Please model this.
Amino acid sequence: MTPAPLSAVVAEVTQRIRQRSRQTRQAYLERIRADAVRADSRERLSCANLAHAFAALDDGERKQVIGQRRPNLGIVTSYNDLLSAHRPYEDYPKVIRDEARDWALGPGPGATPAMCDGVTQGTPGMELSLFSRDVIAMSTAVALSHDVFDAVLLLGICDKIVPGLLIGALSAGHLPCVFVPAGPMGSGIANSAKAKVREAHVRGEASREQLLDVEQQAYHGVGTCTFYGTANSNQVLLEAMGLHVPGAAFVPPYSGLREQLTRGAVRTALEITRERRFTPIGELVDERVIVNALVTLLATGGSTNHLIHWVAVARAAGISFDWSDVDRLSGAVPLLARIYPNGQADINDFERAGGTGFVLAQLLELGLLHPDVATVSGEGVAGQTRRPRLVDGELSFTPPPSESPDPTVLRPAAEPFDSSGGLALLTGNLGRSVIKVSAVAPDHRVVTAPAFVADSQEEVVAAFSRGELDRDVVVVVRFQGPRANGMPELHRLTAILGSLQSAGRRVALVTDGRMSGASGRIPAAIHLTPEASAGGPCARLRSGDLIRLDTTTGSLEVLLDANDFATRQPAQHAVAGPLGLGRDIFAGLRATVGGAEQGACTWLPDPDQPVTLSVQPVPEEVLL
Model:
């Protein structure tokens, strides 16, 4: 495959990010390179350190890792029984240890928490969801702080888990790292049928029992949820960044091919250790790789959550981009995929139609990806387009299809679903926000209507129940940002607003909260920043104010006299009663978290300042 010359827009955005990040990226690289050239841990650590690290090994294993200097393979896993996507990881350590047996010692396990947004949607637990990303990053860093590993496997799939693992791994950026997915569940009830029952339920036309039956038909087995939300967007981005074995993302759990891909991840991790083809993750994730991830997100109509998470990932590697960069790329990147909620297909349909490999190949043909970047396979982006298969029980690869087997799901670059990507920036006198337009019909992309202003989802639900929203309306839900309550997703509103739109009303949502990868056919200006709790203009809105949301001009405005609006007294947000369910424990994170466009980082309150660490040499007399 011969990639086309690099797009001028991609080159421009990449150079802008590189210039903006020059100092922070250099500081990061100097730190991880200093870590990379240190002596081997078996020489650098004290005898007591080493004895503790390998105390659980038998005599033969200790001889291998200490005497024979075999690589020590680490693993950070988010396995638990609650998450359907992560249940398959239960047996992965056995497979990894078996595959590593003749190569290395492994695995040295660490673990990280993993919560399910599907369980916590619309509940108080959702207020911990965004912050769980940084908890996962911290727990990953704790696992890697043992500093005895030569390479690391990272086991995770879902919404905050992959970004958290990635941020934590970049904190030890001198280590080679490979992500290991587990695959999606089988297809269940059609997503359109599920959405109809959800809307019928909020109108009182379907019982709770009917709704529960439909939901269980949708979420029915082991593996990742099959719609194209944040979890599956994570997997597409990791493949685009070259952090997976090629084509590993969407092979079903418990299949023979899935096991061989896991074994392939072990071999890949050991191939990129210091003694072989050294590819530390902090060197791999550079400005070009971040841009490749963003381009692929846009081309597939992926999750809006990544306009927060990948900002944080980039900052963990000393790289700074903002929503204007994404908006600029979006104008040059065609939409090549239709996956629910941007279409009727699910992720299994996407994989059968050619999957991520087909998308990457098409983007290379357009010159929209940097082809010559480091990847764990060592073959650049072209290597990531390959499709895995089994030949006589062994892992093999084939080129991606030259044509999509299903053009209703995946289109070639010459015939895209849309000429621009699935995400856009909205700006105006209410601040800056993002919108996922890939699933919004063209006749719903401009909405002008009076506001209904609420400070919680519950207020909107109550107003809908009273019939107060049966009109053209822009629903504003404020005090939902990171500082206010941890920026929960507002999925309880999806069926309500969808029902109003289906009834012929002109509706839109404006919020400083999130809607995630499931935001669909309702125009939703989300992640509004500055948030209300940080003095954002939305704190001065009142019900009845006329609001205009216009994706064609990229604007979000309240249609009021500028002086009158500026002099209004902002509303105050009061948290009623004791928080409970862990939310009080996270109060410190709410107090220090940065804004949504800065990645909502709790570990980097000032996003313009690099993280610098002073490393002091260990006195020789300590190393006894």
Q: What stands out?
A: The domain at 423-566 is CATH 3.50.30.80 (Glucose Oxidase; domain 1). Residues 48 and 624 are 8 Å apart (CA to CA).
